Amino acid sequence: MKTLTTIILFFLFFNLSYAQGGNTEFRSIWIVTWEYISGSSSVETNKARIRSILDNMNTANMSSVIWQARQ
């Protein structure tokens, strides 16, 4: 049920942002938890990974990044 609610909210948000922004392109990437957070790494190392991902997405001219919060 939570998954269905999340999907519905995502599409509602996408429709609202599309109507307001007038942008016809939605370029995104899905980032999974284990790609940027490691329990054996320091907090600073994890932050550096996240910054690197965001910098790469900015360079690739992506319009959004979808983060997986829980596994």
Protein architecture, described:
By secondary structure, the chain is mainly α. Helix content is 58%, strand content 11%. It has a two-stranded parallel sheet with strand order 1-2. The protein starts with a helix and ends with a strand.
Measured by DSSP, the beta-strand proportion falls in 5-15%
Main sheet properties = 2 strands, parallel
**CA-to-CA gap between the ends?**
16 Å
Rg, nearest Å: 15 Å
List the helices and strands and how they pair.
Layout: H1 2-21, E1 28-31, H2 33-36, H3 43-59, E2 64-67
Parallel strand pairs: 1-2
In short:
The protein is mainly α. Helix content is 58%, strand content 11%. It is built from three helices and two strands; from the N terminus they run αβααβ.
What key phrases describe this protein's structure?
71 residues, mainly alpha, 2 strands, 11% strand, two-stranded parallel sheet, flat
